[in-house]
Amino acid sequence: MSAKTKSPVGVEAIAAKGWLGAHKWLIARRLSQTAFLMLFLVGPWFGWRVVDGTLAGSRTLNILPLTDPFITLQGSVAGHWPELTALIGALIVLAAYALIGGRMYCSWVCPINPVTDAAHWLHDRLNMPKGWQPKRHTRLWLMATVLVTSALTGTIAWEVINPIAMLHRGLVFGMGAAWGVVIAVFLFDLFVSRRGWCGHLCPVGAFYGLLGQKSLLRVSAPNRAACDDCMDCFAVCPENHVITPALRGKDGDTPLILAPDCTNCGRCIDVCSVDVFTFTHRFDDRMSVATPDAANKAA
Amino acid sequence: MPSSSPMSPARRRFLTDTARMAGGCAVAGLGLAYITSDARALPAEALRPPGALPEDDFLSACIRCGLCVRDCPYDTLKLAELGMDGPATGTPFFTAREIACEMCEDIPCVAACPTGALDKSLTNIDDAKMGTAVLVDQENCLNFLGLRCDVCYRVCPVIDEAITLEVRHNDRSGHHAIFAPTVAADRCTGCGICEKSCVLPEAAIKVLPIRLARATSADHYRKGWEEQAEKGGPVLDGIIDLPDRLPGPGTDNLAAPGGYEPAFKLPGAGQ
Ligand code: SF4
Ligand code: SF4
Ligand code: SF4
Ligand code: SF4
């Protein structure tokens, strides 16, 4: 935490790239989250029926079906083989996220992400302790538990408490007491467990993570030689264990962040004052040509 | 001996962690199972959309996307809100007394459903079975009191088949008729329009889920008259048909005033 005492996270990046430059992926992400929500909301609000339904299942422009593959999977193990429309919808979503990175869903689409991001922001402001930190793979266990429970009860089990579906469906169709579930996630992340929900527990995130194992779109650290050890990327990354192998790799180690936990949120790109990171594809393991500055440091 | 050699700390930690995780998951799974079973109790006044699979199958099929709700032109359907509505959170339902199903001919709700939770094999809305109307309160139904309200009968989209007015004698006034609204459960779709339209402050006719509205007859029951009609003669041969004792003239009874003529005359009986 010595890096933290040096200067608050992001200050150097803002100084070097300007506020906009140091927040461009964050802004893009917030715009994307808003846009995904608005696509569903302009229907009920203004009667423009662009996308009907919810994230669980939707129909775009009256033709394109999209279905959440994790929900479809739960329904299937619960004993209902869905009709073609839902299957096609699920396959399209599967293919898309397998390509761009499953956890893109988490950082660019999921409506809970702004909630847990807000909790984390406040958590930092209040200088709270980390709290309970269950193992990262707890979410995989939870995902398996959800599937087993679905099979045993013959229901789509996770949907009875899924905060993502509750928030999204609530905004589109009416909230009821679903606010309670959303607030519970916020408070959990704030007081009980730093980055607890998305980083350790959410079985939906776990599912999408598995989906993106071999995804094409990746963040890379080709300019890692320029790293000045400010640790800001570790501070902003919601899954910061994924950074180490890429950033701290020895010569010959790939600069690509290949861990499927990476949500492709791009905050590390934003917050780095010396532009170590960039978006690229998984076969691009080139290192950037060392700048004189970086070469000095490496030497 | 592997059994006597002490377990390595790493291995011990791995086993403890795994056991702990499995325990935690068992507890989480039980909790989840408990909530799902709780959500399975569908309240009696909540009706599922046309074509909905039986409740148990429905809960494994419906992904709670709301497309059926969006495509219902009458805003009949709603998605259940947590803590406000009875059915499992997010699943579609309607309350007949609020907005009934208008029985759209093209059944847009079924067409919209991507999963088959609303069964596409329902192609004629008259075959829908959302529930069954039951005249639950004869003491307050205006028609049973001898008036001619008839509203539930008139509004029924399957009028004269799903619901009829059965004429009977009004014993109270002695010389009027009662037009009793009577539901034929095999034709009633459970749309709820009758319940919605009942003029009383609380409807005397209500659509109930079929599990509540209907009895099932025992497997071994046979209706003699049906079997006889099917066979075109007595079910058992050589049975002796004894004369029935009927009220009214023409039998061995005393002639009762207003009694009925027997449908047939036994040879040599009465006078
Ligand atoms: S981990 Fe779960 S809640 Fe968090 S962003 Fe991903 S899907 Fe959403
Ligand atoms: S049949 Fe028509 S009115 Fe009835 S629930 Fe379906 S869409 Fe709505
Ligand atoms: S359209 Fe089908 S899957 Fe979607 S909410 Fe209605 S019944 Fe459920
Ligand atoms: S619910 Fe009432 S209105 Fe609808 S079909 Fe049955 S008897 Fe007719």
From TrEMBL, chain A:
Which molecular-function annotation in GO is an example for this chain?
Answer: 4 iron, 4 sulfur cluster binding
Cellular component, GO annotation = plasma membrane
- Please report the stretch or stretches of sequence annotated as the 4Fe-4S ferredoxin-type domain: 217-248, 253-282
Identify this protein by name: Quinol dehydrogenase ferredoxin subunit NapH
Q: Which Pfam families match?
A: Fer4_5, Fer4_7
Output the Gene3D superfamilies linked to this UniProt entry: 3.30.70.20
NCBIfam families in UniProt: napH (TIGR02163), PRK09477.1 (NF007013)
- Could you tell me the keywords of this UniProt record? 4Fe-4S, Electron transport, Iron, Iron-sulfur, Membrane, Metal-binding, Repeat, Transmembrane, Transmembrane helix, Transport
User: Mind telling me which InterPro entries this protein's record contains?
Assistant: 4Fe4S_Fe-S-bd (IPR017896), 4Fe4S_Fe_S_CS (IPR017900), Electron_Trans/Redox (IPR051684), NapH_MauN (IPR011886)
What parts of the sequence cross the membrane?
34-51, 84-100, 140-158, 170-192
Sections of the chain in a coiled coil:
none
Q: From which organism does this entry originate?
A: Donghicola mangrovi
